[in-house]
Amino acid sequence: LCLPGVLPLCCRPPAWDRATRPAPSPLQPPGLPLAPCRSFSNNKIQVELDESSGIAMMKFKSPPVNSLSLEFLTEFSISLEKLENNRACRGVIITSAVPKIFSSGLDITEMCGKSVEHYAEFWRAVQEMWLRLYGSNMVTVAAVNGSSPAGGCLIALSCDYRIMAENPKFSIGLNEAQLGIVAPFWFKDTFVNVVGHRIAERSLQLGSLHPAPEAHKLGLVDELVPEEKLMEKAAAVMAQWLSLPDHARQLTKTMMRKAVLDRLVAHREEDIKNFITFVSKESIQKSLRMYMEMLKKRKS
Ligand code: CO8
Questions:
Q1: Catalytic position from the list 110, 175, 209, 224
Q2: Which end of the chain is more exposed for a tag (fewer CB within 10 A), N or C?
Q3: Catalytic site residue 54?
Q4: How far is it, in rounded angstroms, from Cα 30 to Cα 24?
Q5: What is the predicted pLDDT for the residue at 299?
Q6: How sure is the predictor about 36, in pLDDT bands with cuts at 50, 70 and 90?
Q7: How many angstroms separate the CA atoms of 83 and 175, rounded?
Q8: In what pathway does it function (predicted)?
Q9: Which ligand 1 atom minimizes the distance to the CA of 279?
Q10: Is 223 a catalytic site residue?
């Protein structure tokens, strides 16, 4: 999938080659609601940019569970690109407008009973979303206000900082193994970079979904706060990160993340082929169908 009007990430100049963002504008004090100045892309994601503080708020609003469908992923990548290209925007807070759910991860129906062409397009969109988010020059803060399995967890892991509502009913993790599927290498790399090898190895093999307090203990999320304080805290963290000169922070981020990003860029087509081969197997299709049935049964 090539997003309309957007140069694929691998063709864009590397982050250190791009112009750095303008000097900080006076920041809104933490805790105050962000005055929306500009709002766009209103189908599955609501984006509001406060140009005076340089902070955008991105809210997932695709009920019932903010699953990452092809349409959602495309909208997400386009929104990120728009913000990235807007010199007035220096940071983005990512959260959910759906109660109790941050994101349920990849939309499983996109991986069931579809054509090879569809799988290729879908997987390219998943890659695109991650390349844009993990490689973003902006400060990215995840305000995780609900459950966040698999692809939802990847979104949080790809941000610079994660704050989660301290509700033990909310869980987060890369639970792919529970579905009988395997997290791709770049999901794993992102996870390892956050929690370290041992915790990632155990958690990935067990497909663990960690309740918020445990996720905090493991370092999967940086902070827990009462749900009603989540946005205030996110704004305060954002203000702290934006108080540094953009160029130094951006170059440091690039230095820390470049190897992992480059690895996917170098193996993108191979990764798509692997996904198609894997997901097309009848045994994998069966696992996914059974998992969807289990979700439905659990409900009734
Ligand atoms: N995709 C599609 N539909 C979903 C998904 C999903 N990920 N999650 C939930 N739904 C559907 C349910 O089936 C249900 O549908 P319906 O109303 O038609 O019965 C509806 O959304 C609501 O779901 P619940 O009733 O379960 O809602 P709850 O609020 O009780 O629970 C949860 C919400 C906790 C999010 C729960 O739905 C859940 O655990 N979902 C599964 C999440 C999950 O395991 N996601 C993993 C997806 S795979 C992924 O992201 C990475 C894959 C990497 C690729 C590897 C290579 C092959």
A1: 175
A2: C
A3: no
A4: 15
A5: 75
A6: low
A7: 30
A8: Lipid metabolism; fatty acid beta-oxidation
A9: 57
A10: no
From 1.10.10.10, 3.40.30.10, 3.30.465.10, 3.90.226.10, which CATH number describes the 37-299 domain? 3.90.226.10
The residues spanned by each domain of the chain are: 37-299
* Chain segment 73-108, per-residue pLDDT in tens: 999 999 999 999 999 999 999 999 999 999 999 999
d(CA 29, CA 71): 35
Over 60: is that where the pLDDT of 293 sits? yes
Only one residue has tokens 């390219």, namely: 124
Q: Measured in angstroms, how far is the CA atom of residue 297 from the centroid of ligand 1?
A: 12
pTM score: 0.91
Nearest protein CA to atom 41 of ligand 1, as residue: 104
> Which amino acid is residue 90, in one-letter code?
R
Beta pairing class for 139-144 and 161-165: parallel
pLDDT of residue 35: 52
Q: How far is the CA of 55 from the centre of ligand 1 (A)?
A: 30
Residue 20 is predicted with a pLDDT of 46
Whether residue 19 is predicted with pLDDT greater than 90 in this model: the reply is no
Please state, in angstroms and rounded to a whole number, the distance separating the CA atoms of residues 138 and 93: 10
- Ligand 1 binding pocket (C-beta < 6 A) is 64-65, 67, 101, 104-109, 147, 149-151, 175-176, 179, 181-184, 275, 278-279, 292, 295-296, 299
Amino acid 2: pLDDT:
38
What is the average pLDDT score of the chain?
Answer: 90
Single-letter code of the amino acid located at 129? M
